[in-house]
Amino acid sequence: MYQGIIMSGFGGQGIISGGIMLAYAGMIEGKNVTFFPAYGAEMRGGTANCSVVVSSDPVASPVVGSPDSLLIMNEPSLARFEDSLKPDGLMIINSSLVNSRSTRTDITAIEIPVSDLAEEVGNIKTANMVILGAYAKKTGAVSIDALKNSIAKVYLRASESMVELNKKAIDKGAEAVS
Amino acid sequence: MEKVVFERTKGLTDIPMRYCPGCGHGVVHRLVAECFMELGVQEKTIGIGPVGCSVFADEYFNVDMIQGAHGRGPAIATGIKRCLPDRLVFSYQGDGDLASIGAAEMLHSAMRSENITIIFINNAIYGMTGGQMAPTTLLGMKSTTSPSGRTVAANGYPIRVCELLSAMEGPIYLERVSVDKPAAVVKAKKAIKRAFEYQLEGRGFTLVEILSQCPTDWHMTPLQAIEKIRKDLIPYYPLGIYREPQDDKRAKPKKVAVEKES
Amino acid sequence: MAERTLMKGNEAVAEGAVRAGCRFFAGYPITPQNEIPEYMSWRLPEEGGTFIQAESEVAAINMLFGASSVGTRVMTSSSSPGISLKQEGISYCATAELPIFYTNVVRGGPGLGNIAPSQGDYFQATRGGGHGDYRVIVFAPKTVEEMANFPRICYELAFKYRIPTMVLADGILGQMMEPVTFDFDPIDPSVFKTPDWALRGSKPEERRVIKSYDLRPGKMEQWNFRLEKKYDEIREKEPRYEAVNIDDADIILTGYGTAARVCESVMALGRKDGLKIGYVRPITLWPFPKSIFKELGEKVEKFFVVEMSLGQYIEDVKLSLNGKSEIYLHKRPAGGIPTGEEVLELTRKILSGDKLKLVA
After folding, report:
1. Which of A29, A147, B158, C207 is the most buried (most CB within 10 A)?
2. Do B43 and C201 touch (CB under 8 A)?
3. Among residues of chain C, what percentage have pLDDT more than 70?
4. What is the CA radius of gyration of chain B?
5. Regions of chain A where pLDDT drops below 50
6. Is some CB atom of chain C closer than 8 A to the CB atom of A39?
7. In the predicted structure, residue C1 carries a pLDDT above the cut 50
8. Which domains does chain C have, with CATH numbers?
C-alpha cells in the first residue's frame, strides 16, 4: 500500500497541521509515513501545501511529484496541482471555495462543500478535519479512529471541547462521502 | 635597609616579550597582569589573544589563554563567559582586529552587554603585517597601503571606538587612556582595574582603549613616537571616560544635555 | 525513551543534541534550517544551557570556539552559504582539537542558489572544508530518526578524538517529519569530568593554552603529523555503512542521505521484479567506508551512484573501487530530487547493457 497525498489551500486553512495529522494517524497505525511542507519563500504569499506519504514500505522520498490523492481547499490549488494527479487518482475538492471543476476524465473527483460543513459543525477552522475525514473514509489509507486519536497529539494546546469539535468535523467529512 | 619598590608581576610568565623597542604592548601587558593579580583572580582568569603583534599574548599572560581568529575575540569571550560566568574573561585586541575585521563582534558583544572586558590597543597602524593602514590611522598619516597619506576620498575617516560605542545602551564602562608617560600609565592601570572590577561585579560590557605608540611602523624613534601620541593621536582621540556606571562613587555625575520626555 | 513521536528533522537533530548533553548553541538564521535555532532558543534554557542568536555565522562559530574550549558540549547549525562562512572557525577548531558539533542542512548552490534540498556540499564536508590539512567526522543520516540519534555518536567521537563532528543533511531531511524513537536516554553533561585540556582558570603551574598556531620552524609540520595520526586511527576504526542484498547482486546502487533512501526503495522495487540489486550507503562520509566498496568491487561488475550533486560523492566511490568495476552516475543538483521511477528505469537500462550513464 502506498499513498502520496498533496494537501493544498490558503495559509490559515490548517493545511500544514492537517498534513501532520494525516501523517500522525498513519504512524500510530504502524505505517511508514513522511510529511513534507512547502517551505521558505514558497510559503509566503498566501498558498500553503504539503506532501504526505503513507506507505506499508519505507518511504524513498517525501516529495510527492505525482500524487495518488489531492486535497484541494481553494481555487488556485486546483489549477496548480490538477495535472500532477496520477491517472485513476482521487481528488477531493472544497466546493465551498472552488468554483472551477476538474477537467480530468481519468480520475475520481469528489466535490464536497468542506467549508460550509465546517461551519455547520460550528467552526470554519475545522475545514481541514472535514476534508481529512472524507479522505480517510474514501481511501482507508488511515482510519477515522486514528485521525481522531491524532488530534490532541498535533494540537497540543487544544481544549477538550475543541478536540470534540474536530472529531465531529472528521465525522462530518466521512458522512459526506458515505 | 633594602626595600623592593618594583618587581615583575607573577601575572606574566618568564618568557621574554618580543615587542619592538618603544612599543606600548609590553607596558599594557604588565598593567593587565598586575590588575588581575591585585584583584586576586589569577586562577579564575581566562584571556583571549588576537591576531596581530600581540598574537603571542598566550605565551606572556600567566593565566589560561586561548588564541582565536582575527577579530573574533569578543565572540570567543562570549562563548567562554556564558559557560563560566564567574571567571574574569578579557579579550586583548588591536585596532585592525577590533575596529576593522572584528567590528561586528565588537558592536554586538557591546549590544548584548556581554560581561567581558576588551583591552583595545590603538596604535593607528597594522604592526604585525608591516605597517598597513588601520581603521584608526589618522588622516594624512602614511602607511604601506596609504603611501601618500590617508585621505578622506580614498579611505574615509578614522574610527573613534569609544565614541562609537558610547552611542549604544549596552556598554557599562568605556575609557580611553594612553601610556606615553608615567602618570598616564598609572591612569591606564586604574582604568583596566575598574573594568575588571565591573566585570567581576557582573555589570556587563567594559572596554579600555589604550593609545599606544608603534615606533617601528611609524618610522620614528621611541621618543618621537611618544611625541606623536601627544601631538596627533590624543587630539583626535581625546582621553577620558566615555561611559561609567552612575551608581559607582568613582563616577562623575553625567551632564544631561537634553531632558528626556516622559 | 521508547515513545514514538512524529518530528521534523531540524527539531530532531536539535533535540538529539540536547539529549546528548549539548548546553551551548550559537547560530544565525538561514533557510532551510531555521527550526534548529528556533528549537534551541527555548529548549536549551530548559536544561540550563545557553542559546545565542549570533550577529553572523562567523561570530557563531567563534562563540563555539570559546564555549567548547572550556569543555562544554556545543552545537551550531547552518545551511550551505552559512557553513562556508564558518569554515575558517572550523579549521581553527580542528587544529586546536576542539570537539564541536555542527549540522549543515544543505541547500542548492553554488552562490545564493536556492533553498531546495541538495547534496552539493559533499566535497566541502568530506575534505575538511576550510583552509589547511584537516578532516572532520561527517555523519550522513537518511531518516529523521537518524537525525535524532546521530548527535549522541557525534559527541562521543568528538570528545574521544578531540575533533569537530558534523551531520550532513539536506532540505528534505531538515524539513520533513517522520516517526522518531530516541535510542538513548537523555545525558546530563554534568556527569562528565571536565577534560584535562579544557580552560578553567588555573594555577600558573597548571596553566592551559588553546591555540591553532605555532610559528617556530618545523613545529607546525609536527603538529600536522600529530593530527594525521589521529585521522589515520579514525579512518581505521570509525567508518560506518549499511549494505543490503550484496551477496547475489548484479548491480550495487549507492548514495548517501536522501539519495540513499531512493536507492534503497529502488532496490526493493527491483527485487520484486527479479532484478538482483544490492544497496550500499555510507553512514560516515568521512571516514569513508572504503573497505566495503573494495570488497564488493572484487565481485560486482556494476555500481550505480545516485547523488543530488554533479559527481562529488562518486569520487570516493571511484577511489575505493580503484578501477575494479563499471561506475554509472545519476546526478540531480540544486533541488533536483531523483525519483524512484527514474532510478529504477535507469537501473534496468544499465543492467541490460546501456552505457549511457557510464562514467568510469
Report:
1. A147
2. yes
3. 99
4. 18
5. none
6. yes
7. no
8. 5-191 (3.40.50.970), 241-351 (3.40.50.920)
pLDDT of B2: 84
Nearest to C172 among A20, A40, A63 (CB): A63
Strand order in the sheet with C302-307: C241-244, C277-282, C251-254, C302-307, C326-331
Query: Please, are residues B40 and B114 in contact by the beta-carbon 8 Å criterion?
Result: no
The three cell numbers of residue A128 are 481541514
The phi, psi pair for C249, rounded to 5°, reads -70, 140
Using the beta-carbon criterion (under 8 Å), do A33 and C179 form an inter-chain contact?
yes
Interface partners of chain C (CB pairs < 8 Å, 3 or more) are A, B
Write down all domains in chain A, each with its CATH number in brackets: 2-176 (3.40.920.10)
Distances (CA, A) of A170 to A22, A117, A118, A167: 12, 10, 9, 5
Smallest CA–CA separation between A71 and chain C, in Å? 19
Between β-strands C101-106 and C74-78, what pairing exists: parallel, antiparallel or unpaired? parallel
A near C: at least 3 beta-carbon pairs less than 8 Å apart = yes
Neighbours of chain A (3+ CB pairs under 8 A): C
Closest Cα in chain C to A34: C178
Answer for the pair C251, C352: CB distance below 8 angstroms, yes or no. Answer: no
| Contact state of C177 with A23 under an 8 Å Cβ cutoff | yes
How does the average pLDDT of chain C come out, rounded?
A: 96
Task: Look at the alpha carbons of C117, C120, C121, C123 in this order and tell me if their dihedral is positive or negative.
Answer: positive
pLDDT tier for residue B254 given thresholds of 50, 70 and 90: confident
* Subunit contact C6:A33, Cβ cutoff 8 A: yes
pTM over 0.90: yes
What domains appear along chain B, each with residue ranges and CATH number?
25-243 (3.40.50.970)
Element spanning C237, H or E: helix C219-237
CB-CB contact of A35 with A62 (8 Å): yes
Mean pLDDT along residues B47-74? 96
Return the residue matching grid coordinates 531512493: C262
Closest-approach residue (CA) in chain B for C98: B66
Q: Which residue of B has its CA nearest to C49?
A: B83
ipTM higher than threshold 0.85: yes
Pick from C172, C179, C338: which is nearest to A62 by CB? C172
Report the residue from C59, C202, C204 with minimal CB separation from B108.
C59
Name the residue of chain A whose CA is nearest to C269's CA.
A57
